[in-house]
Amino acid sequence: MSGKEERVSRSEEAIILHHLDSLMVKEQEISGVLVSTGDGFRVASRLTGSLSAEKLSAMASSLIAINEAVCKESSLGACRDLVIEASQGRILLMDIPHPAQKLILTVLCRAKVTMGQVLWAARGCRESLGKLFVGS
Amino acid sequence: MSDREYKLIFTGSMGAGKTTAIAAVSEVAPVRTEMQNTDHAHHVKETTTTGLDYGVVTLPGGEVLRLFGTPGQVRFQFMWEILGKGALGVVVLADNSSEDPVGDVLEYARAFADVIDGSRAVVGVGRMDVHPVPTLEDYDAALRGIGVRVPVVSTDVRQREQVLTLLDILFYQIDAASEFSGAALQEVP
């Protein structure tokens, strides 16, 4: 299984992690962030506890893929963000612009988060990463 | 709309033809959840299913089969568990040109053991015309070794009739298992 094959270089991963760290500093109620490929491989992550970045990457891929299928089936246009409301927090998933491959940004938030604020910050992070990839 | 509906699973390794098989027989536009494949060391195909495939087939007897295809890779095992709930049988597809197709089939047979329950499955082996080994007997012997007694047939899932044949065989297996256990076929809740 070649799942451990490097999707980005170490320097690229370091730059991505810098953006993820900035997002977490900006929004204290964000408890974890992950960047993964469209087909479910981890690219970079800041997760706490026993959370598996590899498993979460696969789940993010499935969720985004099903989300896109639902949007298509409903004729509601292109899929944008996916927000999951849980009893103890929220999970936000969105595409990151990339010239060569689909990347997914997953943001885990605690329950008391102000959704609009986090959404704004996450979109900012998404745009920054997008510029990074498109400009590279 | 028939009042008898059954949920069936298509599973198998990446590139075995699950998406193709469901698209070949579905009466409705199939639901696909394909993403760009970045794991080219594992398989050269451009896209891979990461969510599910979905299609519908109505048998001549009026039974409506709801077909759910799984992602093939082990990292999507959580989807196998989700999709397997409430399923009555499994079509396991194999690509005989892959590195260890018999081992792959055993892995899916184990993963869906609760649904298969020893016999509620059919194994369809593709590309046997250009890769005759392992043989159907090899698959059969390996499956019997883990207590699974199911038909193993050569197939080309691009051909609608061949996929329908797989479904006919599976439906027979489910029917026979239900009769053997004294229970009628259960409808999807």
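qc> Helices of chain A lie at 10-26, 53-73, 115-135.
qc> done
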